[in-house]
Amino acid sequence: MVALEADLYDDLLDAAECWREAVEQDLASWLRWTPPQDAWLRLNPQSGVKLLRGGNQAIGKTTCAMQEVDWRARGAHPHYPTRKPPVEIWVVCTSWSQSVAIQTKFWSLARRDALTQDTRDRFRLDIGWGKDNPTVLYANGSIVRFRTTNQGAKALAGSSATFTSTSRRPRRCSASSGSASCAAGDRWGLPSPQ
Description:
globular, single chain
């Protein structure tokens, strides 16, 4: 009887480990989006601009954005066609500490098998993909760059980003503003009330 219980316990531990590995490799397949998140992820406006507003830590704005980044980088958006990879995506954050937190959310959602081995090896929970030019490379050639507004407008100007995600609404956004959040291509923002 004891041997049977031990075998059952071992089988349960093995099953739990397999499940943990599957979730770690592709968390998004296991998520169920809330109605506001699902509606935003399905939204495909002609302008390319998407906005999701909500309180701080309220509805998962950043989680939605990082899922959108991964889908677009892979060229595998489940709700509508996007530009064929490779693409370059910029995630513009307000500070370095916010960048690390957002990189960690991105790491938890990104399909591991779609990332290059070097990208998987370089990620660290305490610093993300590093302080100097944190970059995620996909096997299909897509690039995700994490930038901060503290770098200044000149550092962000001249972007060749296909898509841009911002965590705060830009003060002004026009084609000539030189802001990466107003670069050519699609952009989406996720501001909290200010």
